[in-house]
Amino acid sequence: MTVKAAVAGASGYAGGELLRLLLVHPEIEIGALTAASSAGDRLGQHQPHLVPLADRVLAETTAETLAGHDVVFLALPHGHSGEIAARLGEEVLVVDLGADHRLRDASDWQRWYGGEHAGTWPYGLPELPGAREKLYGTKRIAVPGCFPTGGSLALAPAFAAGLVEPEAHFVSVTGTSGAGKSLKPHLLGSEVMGSASAYGVGGAHRHTPEFAQNLGLVAGERVTVSFTPVLAPMPRGILTTASAPLRAGTDLDAIRTEYEKVYHDEPFVHLLPAGSWPSTAAVLGSNAVHLQVTVDADAGRLVVIAALDNLTKGTAGGAVQSANLALGFEETTGLSTVGVAP
Amino acid sequence: MTVKAAVAGASGYAGGELLRLLLVHPEIEIGALTAASSAGDRLGQHQPHLVPLADRVLAETTAETLAGHDVVFLALPHGHSGEIAARLGEEVLVVDLGADHRLRDASDWQRWYGGEHAGTWPYGLPELPGAREKLYGTKRIAVPGCFPTGGSLALAPAFAAGLVEPEAHFVSVTGTSGAGKSLKPHLLGSEVMGSASAYGVGGAHRHTPEFAQNLGLVAGERVTVSFTPVLAPMPRGILTTASAPLRAGTDLDAIRTEYEKVYHDEPFVHLLPAGSWPSTAAVLGSNAVHLQVTVDADAGRLVVIAALDNLTKGTAGGAVQSANLALGFEETTGLSTVGVAP
Amino acid sequence: MTVKAAVAGASGYAGGELLRLLLVHPEIEIGALTAASSAGDRLGQHQPHLVPLADRVLAETTAETLAGHDVVFLALPHGHSGEIAARLGEEVLVVDLGADHRLRDASDWQRWYGGEHAGTWPYGLPELPGAREKLYGTKRIAVPGCFPTGGSLALAPAFAAGLVEPEAHFVSVTGTSGAGKSLKPHLLGSEVMGSASAYGVGGAHRHTPEFAQNLGLVAGERVTVSFTPVLAPMPRGILTTASAPLRAGTDLDAIRTEYEKVYHDEPFVHLLPAGSWPSTAAVLGSNAVHLQVTVDADAGRLVVIAALDNLTKGTAGGAVQSANLALGFEETTGLSTVGVAP
Amino acid sequence: MTVKAAVAGASGYAGGELLRLLLVHPEIEIGALTAASSAGDRLGQHQPHLVPLADRVLAETTAETLAGHDVVFLALPHGHSGEIAARLGEEVLVVDLGADHRLRDASDWQRWYGGEHAGTWPYGLPELPGAREKLYGTKRIAVPGCFPTGGSLALAPAFAAGLVEPEAHFVSVTGTSGAGKSLKPHLLGSEVMGSASAYGVGGAHRHTPEFAQNLGLVAGERVTVSFTPVLAPMPRGILTTASAPLRAGTDLDAIRTEYEKVYHDEPFVHLLPAGSWPSTAAVLGSNAVHLQVTVDADAGRLVVIAALDNLTKGTAGGAVQSANLALGFEETTGLSTVGVAP
């Protein structure tokens, strides 16, 4: 018996990626596709790569058009999912790909996003200590932000094992699709090709409190976070350079052993063999996170590199992975660790 | 009962794409992986995106390492497959992704490639008139060149129906992976990024006789071919602008009707709705060809735009599609029309 | 005594490139900078690469703000320059980088652009037979379109010498800056990176009549033109593949001799040595056009490849070159044949 | 009286950029051009963008071919310049664009590069405290590494003023040309386009001791350095995210005031207005470094973003700037702060 899913925000990048994944999901049938300003259009006008769905017509995003599904994926701008979720019924699995239900602390929400906090839902990053259990059978999932996904997995084992001081530093090089289809001058092809640029510097990016929340929970103490995103000329992919000060007596062997132990059975976290380094090309379109760890002895720091596809594991693939757990499917159903390269 | 396949040339781009597709093929099991200078390496060193095969070790490409398989895919430089195929036994399905067995005319082979002609095998472009039938149950398949794949499908219906004069003009914008992993200065990232350049101009590209062979067979008369490839800053994709002089009395309606008729039931040829134009992004990683047709009334020409992924439909996907026919599987088994975008 | 120049449309790509060139022009002083919706902004907000002008404030584009200059460069959307030019006085050199004054035939204007034809000004492509003389001392210049610049120079010598039949075929691969800073979804970085796409196919691009006008004048008879632009993932550059049917008795030697003769003394047209092929990288930021010619004997066609920078020789550099002639300066003043590569 | 300059390594990226700059340098005449494996070739085969020098033939790099010049620029792999410099005579200005003469500590040289240390020359980063004075009239210049150029300028004012703790963190996103024209698989266009990847992680990159040397001299105490380079899909440009722990009592106003004071009169360091952030596109081909500073209050860190062109200010432009000082020219002669964008 397949499960029927609606996708709200089907004309955007996150919605498109979700549909790409659902098209090969053996247990999920694609139901209503909805959008805001694109309602009434054929999906093919917005997602020409989704040939099997090209002639589906986009409905308006309302509680009515989303009703009658077992699962509703919300790929909406932040601030829009709380109200719709409230009207969908408690028996429906609602998966929020936006930011609304990620933060635990309402004051964090107000500082970083503004407006009323919609509440906190189980956090859809099963590889984080304690997270998977809360996803089994849940009816509400908050999909993590694309940056905290890779960054948290990069340092969580070190914090959990007390190998580093509670001070994390992240610089994440990201492709442009993370910004969505927004018509902003700095996102034009002419501007981004051939150029790297920084934004949200100095702790100004909204994913910062999510990093701190995740790592704080793992470390059992407040973790100071410095995070800088850098926009690079590629459509997809995030490469995060993560580091933290090593605690005395920790060496690379101990770290590697710890990471191998933690991630050995994780289907989507792939610790590379020593000497290999992650690249975003190797995870394009896949749900895998590639990691490599090393020690900078002179600087006294653990350095971890993490690569993922911001739209797949960083958004839509993470959503499907968590939905699988909520629906009682095998966690890997419909998902792949195989990238499209070159 | 699954079929066991070996891949020769597994460290290259064509071999890598083939493995990506075989990993999701429900009827084919991946056997030996072989290479030339990379023999002895882990596959993960060369294809980090193929996580499930990362620890497979590359054998040397010999008739011995390839023996014992039901299917052998040869992704080798031209001139290497004839001898190996001869030693593989007639009961084995041999699929040659290289150029050796595409041309019918030995003098064409000698002019364009040099050396002895290895022979002519059934041509793996099922959508070409008369081609599909020859692939059912065959034990030898010559996979078409990436450029003739799109170019032939772009104009074949017009030639078959006698709508245009026998004079075809092609300019194909291609990504860099078509040139393979060759360590040549003009293929360095620093050289190709931000740059478009022409090569093989004036009928100098080796795919030219293959265009002429395909269209001549369809038209039933000699077709003059002008073909220019242009290298563009992208890893994958071919966008072909094809044109031919319209015969008197032909209009766009007649052309569109003809193309719709010819391609209506083809699972991998997708004629876009009027007003939409193909882009290579929409077919990245997919086995689809996107087409659009129009008439340039002032110039008196039919103009057809075709987009495909040179590594998928243009090489490895085309190989799997034809192998499906040879093996008695559904033609679409393990293949997709869904691209990875953006 | 330097000449004072105003630039209307200073916040756009053409305006920015013009300012980049004027900053090193020894005879021209930069006066008013104007814009439409960006009026009031610092130039640095829109053109961060023009550091010496970063604090200049953009005025509104009106006849008043542009008054009091010896030269006024108009980098405006089409349809806007006629009226402003009329109010600037006949003693002012007005250089229109837009399309308004390029076409000689008012019916062509109405068919391709619509609205009233603003008139025809001397055409700023000095390398075209007969064009240079009309630019000496003129007070009005119509800067050519970026596509017809390269395409016309590619085939003009062949048409002028009667070496080819009057039937020209062009496919031009172009960077994205030719479309300006328009906020359109298909111009987003996420859409253009990794993708080639066609547009304006079938003679639908507005530069088509300009090709036909240029070549018709050179050939002395009507030339049929087929033109297709292809958008490629790079900010700048146009690589044009041009071809035409050879007349009987013409061979490559004759063609090469003719092209060498015609372009030998042209400072900005660089016929490459035999065996070298143009790339847009080699002309980035330069005012040079790189050409290579060959003969496709099987197809019976002359094939010419031309590379130029659409913003430099294709727009702003061409404007400065023609303005130099109009102002009595050396034609090459302030311009360079040196590109920025890699 | 112009000065005559030879360029050793003229076929590489650094050599090509140097020639691009020297072509517009009013006081320097270009003499011998030399190369290793490319000796005997026309320069146009390797640097098609340098049209005015296209027919110059490359000599072999020897003390003899380089003799008879006032200035010799050495753009050679490390380990090659010491011996040649020794044979060039003390009256010749030798500018080493390689690493041989940058480090002061022979044991650093041996650890990071191996082999005998060639000695320490005046360091060609005039904007560093104390550096400019040592360049006036010198006959030997060690041009800084491309990464330490931006990184040192990003944090030097803070260390000099004692505003931060002696612990610097750098992640530098770099274009591919920094790796030179090396024929390595990971530098192929197919590999780098669409991909970000890390290398030299954990303090393994050879520029690390140069960062530490520069900042240690400025701070007057040992500075711990963590440095990670990230390869991004663009030919040129480095965007560095630099940070350090703030000392108590330091706020953004104090920092901004200090940076404005230090860089106010520097012709090539451009502190952007508050709210603007650097991009590498804005400095392409220019000798400028664009900086922006901020404070991450939660993390207690100063964060500085620096953008430069690795081939211009990061290599060849820096070389010309320092050579100007050595030769008694105006420091800015032949150099520009204007980039080529978009």
UniProtKB/TrEMBL annotation, chains A, B, C, D:
Places the protein is found: Cytoplasm
Gene Ontology molecular function: any one: NADP+ binding
Alphabetized CDD domains for the sequence: AGPR_1_actinobacAGPR_like, AGPR_1_C
Sequence ranges assigned to domain Semialdehyde dehydrogenase NAD-binding in this UniProt record: 4-136
Entries under SMART domains matching the protein: Semialdhyde_dh (SM00859)
Enzyme Commission number, as recorded: 1.2.1.38
Associated pathway: Amino-acid biosynthesis; L-arginine biosynthesis; N(2)-acetyl-L-ornithine from L-glutamate: step 3/4
Signal peptide: none
Keyword annotations of the record: Amino-acid biosynthesis, Arginine biosynthesis, Cytoplasm, NADP, Oxidoreductase
Keyword Oxidoreductase part of the UniProt annotation: yes
Record-level GO BP terms: L-arginine biosynthetic process
Segments traversing the membrane: none
Enzyme class, broadest EC rank: oxidoreductase
Organism superkingdom: Bacteria
Cellular component per GO, a single term: cytoplasm
Reactions that this protein is recorded to catalyse: N-acetyl-L-glutamate 5-semialdehyde + phosphate + NADP(+) = N-acetyl-L-glutamyl 5-phosphate + NADPH + H(+)
UniProt-listed NCBIfam families: argC (TIGR01850)
Family: Belongs to the NAGSA dehydrogenase family. Type 1 subfamily.
PANTHER family: N-ACETYL-GAMMA-GLUTAMYL-PHOSPHATE REDUCTASE, CHLOROPLASTIC-RELATED, N-ACETYL-GAMMA-GLUTAMYL-PHOSPHATE REDUCTASE, CHLOROPLASTIC-RELATED-RELATED
UniProt name for this protein: N-acetyl-gamma-glutamyl-phosphate reductase
Name of the gene: argC
